Amino acid sequence: MSVHDFTVATADGGSRSLGDYAGKVLLIVNVASKCGLTPQYEGLQALYGDLNNRGLEILGFPCNQFLEQEPGTDAEIQDFCKTTYDVTFPVFSKIEVNGPDTAPLYRYLRTEAPGDFGPHYGFLYDFVAKSFPDRVGTDEIKWNFTKFLVGRDGAVIRRYEPPTTPDEIRPDLDALLA
């Protein structure tokens, strides 16, 4: 099994096989419009602009499970992404990344790369540990802008926790796209 085996809902009500991205390096991100980390859209778009022609695809998955920081409809989210950050990478339909209704793609991503969320993540770790202690020490997504790096073959390579910026990921992307 690989990421390429999943089909996801598009923001316009259709569906897309992630097999369409075979041969591409993927960065899969759960995104939100009203989060302190929302400005990461700018860095993600910069990566996409710089590296898409070398084989990078960034796939955004809006999620409203973290203090309801993605309350809009799919159409409102698309409008926000385009008008606020000039996002040109695909942003799919809103999903759940934790709990009983976790999207199958995210259930798989979490299993393949459980993460390394710990005190070295500073303020966000302190907040999550205090507010949502049941998430600490699990494979659950801790917050918006968790990123998964996926190789050209669809294998999950690495998980980056939310405070990791797109710029910090660039060396790993450059190496995979070389």
From TrEMBL:
Recall the GO molecular function terms of this protein's record.
peroxidase activity
Which UniProt key words apply to this protein?
A: Oxidoreductase, Peroxidase
- UniProt keyword Oxidoreductase, yes or no: yes
- Residues of the active site: 35
Please cite one Gene Ontology biological process associated with this protein.
Answer: cellular response to oxidative stress
The organism's superkingdom is given as Bacteria
What does the sequence similarity comment in the record state about its family?
A: Belongs to the glutathione peroxidase family.
Query: What is the protein's name according to its record?
Result: Glutathione peroxidase
